[in-house]
Write the structure tokens for this entry.
Amino acid sequence: DGGITQSPKYLFRKEGQNVTLSCEQNLNHDAMYWYRQDPGQGLRLIYYSQIVNDFQKGDIAEGYSVSREKKESFPLTVTSAQKNPTAFYLCASSIGLAGVSEQFFGPGTRLTVL
Amino acid sequence: DQQVKQNSPSLSVQEGRISILNCDYTNSMFDYFLWYKKYPAEGTTFLISISSIKDKNEDGRFTVFLNKSAKHLSLHIVPSQPGDSAVYFCAARGTYSGGSNYKLTFGKGTLLTVNP
């Protein structure tokens, strides 16, 4: 079954620590995305990548970093600079970026800062 | 086969009047609908959403109506302001991978221009 996997499902972090969320897809999609979802809000775009070794900031990139060394993988690091990191994080992918009609989502990682 | 359709590529209204953006869908399994807006040269931001168990959701000047029997939703902006000029995307949430994951399917967007 093709799809997107995110790990871990739940993550706890102490304040001041960096943490990396994993996202892997085997759909052979070029474009990948990271979103954050807070209660009562829709998805907010953190970073996106159209192709390997390239990525762009989304609407709320401050305090986050990403890498795209492989087509299948797009890990997100939540740094200590992120003021309010507790949230539900969703990774997505699509065939291309331009004229996107469908984005496929992973199951998400719920990050809680203690 | 386009599952989410925004049949009007553009819409022009006068400031102070109502803007109505329409969206039709074909998949009855969609359970959640969202509207996003995109300003030129900027990212896409979330605007308002509605669950399939409701028929209306209001947030300030923005109201989304859902007619499940007609598979139709609409976004009303009242009163319209010049700053509302942007491309508006309708999106619908469905599941894949045996129902454990979901995906968003987007319409092609409607360019709204609000004239002063």
In short: Chain A has a mean pLDDT of 88.
